């Protein structure tokens, strides 16, 4: 019943996404933004928020490019032989027309959705929120605004620890026709942290309202308190503030709301659905299978994405025990010389086998955006020098839950943590950002060429359209 209610609401949200979001952009004769009357009621605000969430699943955003496609190509994990656009992307050719088109669409659609969030935040009921449910709406919206800006910063600006005074991006805080000015990277991070900390305060008591109404069901698909804390852990680690990164990662881990799945539960746990135990935040997306199947499961020439040929070597490295991820994340297609591994990790097996009626009712179709293991890796890395024993325990906990023996014969290093991160989050769009954060070189998918940070691999140029719109 809970899922039926949610599916009904999501159908309303989809209608909103295709109509009401556009209405927000209507302009009155005096050149001012028209305030949508739907935002004058709690029901209207909820519809608006569902619309914001539905826009995140666009293929140009987390439904494809910022999840299993573009970001995985940039990390050299995925490639497509003969596809000129993918080849250019994998060579960090930011001037190639196909590459420019991808990032222009990412930029434009992300800022459009930020504008939608700001329209909610500017609504009188939300702007001055002092009590439930308006504090929940405001907390989620602020968290999402920070989350979207953070990913734009991670793509289009320098790494903070390399040059905090570098040029950043526009940080949009108003629902306005006026394009916000560019600001420094340092200022960007000030805004991101301010929004996240405000969101944390507003959502601090959300647990007492869970199941109080339809909007408070299935908090995994809302930017909940733990999603805010997890994002703070990401942001602080990216800034090089290990103390705060560990603090927030441990807050999520020790909060008890999410737990690591057992090793026998790894298979199909994220295959087109939100992880039942580990998904801190995800996007409801019933159409995810169509995109994933065509890109990852099939072997269509010049279109489907292949794994780099040597990827399995990492899973075999230090593989004392049985890593259940090797069975859960990969399958084989073809025979003989034509055999290829496929990344089946994200493919909904019920849909693939035309057997959706047997899918457990408690599973939520969609995209995993933040999962619990990341918090263990963040805390382990952040504590490595200050509290080695705790760092090792955190690292070993995830290993054990994936079927591997604990590390007891060598010293834990950042490199070992990176290996586990890569194996865990392959196909989920996190590896490129992790490489960039540490300013690492990247070995090309052919296993021959090595790209260095100095080669310009970590700063995607701001799309031309942004400057054209300012003229």
What does this structure look like?
The protein is mainly alpha-helical and 471 residues long. The protein has a single domain (2-468), classed as Serine Threonine Protein Phosphatase 5, Tetratricopeptide repeat (Alpha Horseshoe). The chain is built from 20 helices and 10 strands. The chain has helices at residues 2-18, 20-23, 42-56, 70-74, 84-90, 97-122, 124-127, 134-156, 185-202, 225-239, 242-254, 288-297, 312-316, 325-329, 349-352, 372-383, 388-401, 414-425, 431-437, 464-468; strands at 78-79, 167-170, 182-184, 279-284, 306-307, 330-333, 340-343, 366-371, 442-443, 450-451. The strands form 5 sheets. A two-stranded antiparallel sheet has the order 1-5. Helix 3 packs antiparallel against helix 6 (97-122), helix 6 (97-122) runs antiparallel to helix 8 (134-156) and helix 8 (134-156) runs antiparallel to helix 9. The chain starts with a helix and ends with a helix.
Which SSEs are present, and which pair or pack?
Blueprint: H1 2-18, H2 20-23, H3 42-56, H4 70-74, E1 78-79, H5 84-90, H6 97-122, H7 124-127, H8 134-156, E2 167-170, E3 182-184, H9 185-202, H10 225-239, H11 242-254, E4 279-284, H12 288-297, E5 306-307, H13 312-316, H14 325-329, E6 330-333, E7 340-343, H15 349-352, E8 366-371, H16 372-383, H17 388-401, H18 414-425, H19 431-437, E9 442-443, E10 450-451, H20 464-468
Antiparallel strand pairs: 1-5, 2-3, 4-8, 6-7, 9-10
Helix pairs in contact: 1-3, 3-6, 6-8, 8-9, 8-10, 9-10, 10-11, 10-16, 11-16, 16-17, 16-18
């Amino acid at each position: 019943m809970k899922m039926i209610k949610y599916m009904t609401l999501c159908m309303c949200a989809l209608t909103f996404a295709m109509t009401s979001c556009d209405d927000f952009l209507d302009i009155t004769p005096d050149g001012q933004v028209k305030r949508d009357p739907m935002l004058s009621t709690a029901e209207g605000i909820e519809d608006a928020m569902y619309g914001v969430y539905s826009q995140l699943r666009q293929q140009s955003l987390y439904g494809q490019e910022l999840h299993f496609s573009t970001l995985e190509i940039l990390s050299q994990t995925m490639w497509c032989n003969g596809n000129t656009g993918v080849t250019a992307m994998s060579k960090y050719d930011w001037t190639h027309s196909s590459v420019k088109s991808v990032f222009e669409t990412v930029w434009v659609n992300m800022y459009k959705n930020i504008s939608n969030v700001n329209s909610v935040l500017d609504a009188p009921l939300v702007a001055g929120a002092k009590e439930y449910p308006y504090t929940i709406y405001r907390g989620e919206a602020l968290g999402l605004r920070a989350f979207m800006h953070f990913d734009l910063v991670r793509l289009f600006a320098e790494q903070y620890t390399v040059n905090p005074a570098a040029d950043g991006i526009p940080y949009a805080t108003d629902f306005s026709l006026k394009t916000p000015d560019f600001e420094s990277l340092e200022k960007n991070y000030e805004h991101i942290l301010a929004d996240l900390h405000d969101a944390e305060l507003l959502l601090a008591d959300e647990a007492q309202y869970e199941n109080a109404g339809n909007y408070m069901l299935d908090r995994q698909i809302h930017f909940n308190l733990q999603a805010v804390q997890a994002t703070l852990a990401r942001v602080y680690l990216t800034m090089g503030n290990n103390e705060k990164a560990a603090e927030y990662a441990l807050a999520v881990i020790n909060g008890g709301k999410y737990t690591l799945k057992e090793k026998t539960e790894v298979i199909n746990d994220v295959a087109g659905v939100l992880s039942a135990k580990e998904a801190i935040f995800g996007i409801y997306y019933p159409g995810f299978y169509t995109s994933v199947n065509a890109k990852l499961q099939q072997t269509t020439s010049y279109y489907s994405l292949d794994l780099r040929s040597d990827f399995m070597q990492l899973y075999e490295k230090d593989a004392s025990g049985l890593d259940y991820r090797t069975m859960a994340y990969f399958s084989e297609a073809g025979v003989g010389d034509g055999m290829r591994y496929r990344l089946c990790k994200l493919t909904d097996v019920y849909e693939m086998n035309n057997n959706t009626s047997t899918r457990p009712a408690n599973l939520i179709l969609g995209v995993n955006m933040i999962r619990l293991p990341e918090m263990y890796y963040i805390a382990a890395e952040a504590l490595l020098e200050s509290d080695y024993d705790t760092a090792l325990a955190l690292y070993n906990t995830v290993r054990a839950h994936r079927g591997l023996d604990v590390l007891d014969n060598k010293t834990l290093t950042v490199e070992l943590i990176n290996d586990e991160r890569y194996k865990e989050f392959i196909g989920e769009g996190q590896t490129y950002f992790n490489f960039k954060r540490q300013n690492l070189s990247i070995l090309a998918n052919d296993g021959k060429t090595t790209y260095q940070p100095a080669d310009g691999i970590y700063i995607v140029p701001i799309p031309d359209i942004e400057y054209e719109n300012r003229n």
